[in-house]
Design brief:
Helix content is about 45%, strand content about 20%. The protein is of the alpha/beta class. The chain has 2 domains: about 140 residues, 3-Layer(aba) Sandwich (D-Maltodextrin-Binding Protein, domain 2); about 90 residues, 3-Layer(aba) Sandwich (D-Maltodextrin-Binding Protein, domain 2), CATH 3.40.190. A 3-stranded parallel beta sheet has the order 4-1-5, sandwiched between helices. The chain has a 3-stranded antiparallel beta sheet with strand order 11-8-12. The longest helix is centred in the first third of the chain and has 27 residues. The protein is globular and about 55 Å long.
Length: about 270
């Protein structure tokens, strides 16, 4: 009986020691509450994008590395912050969920600033400006304006600004994952139209010059493209650092050079 009591006492002492040690270890290496501090401590910033939306982000045919306007802008921002850029690919519909959960530090994916998104996220300063193109089959003479979308069918990325805009004009919008899919469905006559960034359509037509597609209309005003971030105090220093990096890259002409490289024109103006 005495031996049993001694064994139990020894077990309790060891367990207590382990708990104390674990507690001390946890206090010795606390997780930084400030997002920028965490990024600096990790030595990397996690940037999410689609990876299949040329020329914003796509795979190099020779190396399979993710390149494109957004990918390179992300790497340039990371360099300004003094850390490595870890590029993560994800479908459009999951990008914001990953941002909300903290899996990603930034989403750099040609995101347009909208009133609805601004209510939830804190946007960086714009790094580009685009107009939305209404794209139809080359022989389609019924759709000439956005108002003509009423009662028509469109296809776009789920939850995208383009899908929301099409629905606001009375179209029935279906969702797919890539720009190529949307344009293929339009060309095949499976849907009446699709909406996308004008520069993305021009790039697609450079790659597919025989595609039987055309732009029926363009939005009058350009939309601002920026980086959405979590709107909390923990991200305040990260937002300041990202804004400073973008402003420097704009003043140095780096983003303009990347724009010309991938779009053939300067979308920073």
């Amino acid at each position: 009986m005495k031996n049993a009591k001694k064994i139990i006492a020894l077990i309790l002492v060891c367990a207590t020691a382990l708990l104390v040690t674990a507690g001390c270890a946890g206090k010795a290496n606390p997780e930084p509450a400030d997002r920028l501090a965490k990024i600096k401590a990790d030595g990397k910033i996690i940037i999410a994008l689609e990876g299949n939306w040329a020329p914003w982000s796509f795979h190099d045919t020779e190396t399979d590395a993710v390149i494109g306007f957004d990918a390179d802008v992300g790497r340039a921002i990371a360099e300004k912050l003094g850390v490595e850029a870890e590029i993560v690919e994800a479908p459009w519909e999951s990008l914001f969920a990953g941002l909300d959960s903290g899996r990603y530090d930034l989403v750099i994916n040609g995101v347009e600033i909208t009133e609805e998104r601004s209510e939830k996220y804190s946007f960086s300063v714009p790094y580009g400006y685009i107009r939305t193109a209404l794209i139809v089959k080359a022989d389609n003479d019924e759709i000439k304006t956005f108002e003509d979308l009423k009662g028509k069918s469109t296809v776009n990325s789920l939850g995208s600004t383009y899908m929301e805009l099409a629905e606001s004009y009375g179209a029935t919008a279906a969702g797919v994952s890539t720009l190529a899919e949307t344009l293929t469905q339009v060309e095949q006559g499976r849907v009446d139209a699709t909406l996308n960034a004008d520069v993305s359509f021009y790039d697609y037509m450079k790659q597919q010059p025989d595609a039987q597609l055309k732009i029926a209309a363009l939005t009058d005003e350009a939309s601002s493209v920026a980086i959405p971030m979590v709107a909390s105090d923990d991200y305040a220093s990260l937002r300041d650092a990202v804004n400073a990096a973008i402003n420097e890259l704009l003043s140095e002409g780096v983003i303009a050079e990347l724009s010309v490289k991938y779009f053939g024109s300067d979308i920073t103006k």
